[in-house]
């Protein structure tokens, strides 16, 4: 068990498209175990490999789906099909998103209400999960990480500018900044 430091926005790995996993070895298994530990400790409902500084297409999640069933897993080399994103302003109460790489901040963002995630697990068995609501939002958020996109990059104005300002005020947006769950109290 190991908690890994979480990269804060500004680390190039967070802003670069992650590469496909080609080798399914013990190193990958350890990465995934550490990602679960780090997500749990943060605490968070999802974590992408890029957030622990590894540019690979892997994310973990832990959330109760819309039927209240606990869902916890890993997906490697995922594809994501999403439904339509409704137009209009994002809601401050129901669409408020956060990210462990922009710790402690939250902004409203429109997402699709439906998403279908496919990929493989550590044993290279197929993963296929249909999701709605917040579970679908988590998949969209984590999938974006693998393409080098943070949710703050996608915000509508004035939230986009507000987020940019807060990131500057916090002294973020530079390479090499991290926080350690369980040690630094920056959880969101
Ligand atoms: Zn995130």
Low-confidence spans: none
CATH class: Alpha Beta
Number of strands: 9
- Derived from helix and strand composition plus strand pairing, the structural class reads alpha+beta
Annotation field: number of helices: 3
Instruction: Tell me, briefly, the overall form.
Output: globular
**Which series of helices and strands comes N to C?**
EHEEEEEEEHHE
> For the largest beta sheet, what order do the strands appear in spatially?
2-3-4-7-8
Bound molecules: zinc ion
CATH homologous superfamily classification: Peptide deformylase
- Counting structural domains, the number is 1
Percent of sequence in beta strands = 25-35%
CATH topology: Peptide Deformylase
Question: Major β-sheet, in short?
Answer: 5 strands, antiparallel
Radius of gyration: 16 Å
Distance between the termini: 22 Å
User: What integer is the average pLDDT?
Assistant: 96
What is the level-2 CATH architecture name? Alpha-Beta Complex
Helix fraction by DSSP (H/I, runs of at least 4): 10-25%
Overview of the structural elements:
22% of the residues lie in helices and 25% in strands. With 188 residues, it is an alpha+beta fold. The chain has a single domain, classed as Peptide deformylase (Peptide Deformylase, Alpha-Beta Complex), CATH 3.90.45. The strands form three sheets. The chain has a five-stranded antiparallel sheet with strand order 2-3-4-7-8, with helices on both faces. Strands 1-9 form a two-stranded antiparallel sheet. It is globular and about 45 Å long. It starts with 5 loop residues before the first strand and ends in a 9-residue tail after the last strand. Zinc ion is lined by residues 99-101, 141, 145. Residues 99-101, 141, 145 line the site of zinc ion (ZN).
């Amino acid at each position: 068990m190991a908690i890994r430091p979480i990269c804060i926005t500004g680390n190039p790995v967070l802003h670069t498209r992650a590469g496909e996993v080609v080798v399914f070895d013990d190193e990958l298994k350890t990465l995934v175990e550490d990602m679960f530990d780090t997500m749990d400790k943060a605490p968070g409902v999802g974590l992408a490999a890029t957030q622990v500084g590894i540019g690979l297409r892997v994310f973990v999640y832990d959330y109760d789906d819309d039927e209240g069933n606990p869902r916890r897993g890993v997906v490697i080399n995922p594809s994501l099909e999403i439904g339509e994103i409704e137009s209009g302003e994002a809601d401050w109460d129901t669409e408020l998103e956060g990210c462990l790489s922009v710790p402690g901040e939250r902004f409203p963002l429109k997402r699709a209400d439906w998403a279908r995630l496919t990929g493989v697990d550590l044993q290279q068995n197929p993963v296929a999960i249909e999701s709605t609501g917040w579970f679908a939002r988590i998949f969209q958020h984590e999938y974006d990480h693998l393409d080098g996109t943070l949710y703050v990059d996608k915000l509508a104005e004035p939230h986009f500018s507000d987020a940019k300002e807060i990131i500057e005020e916090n002294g973020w947006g530079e390479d090499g900044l991290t926080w350690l769950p369980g040690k630094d109290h920056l959880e969101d």
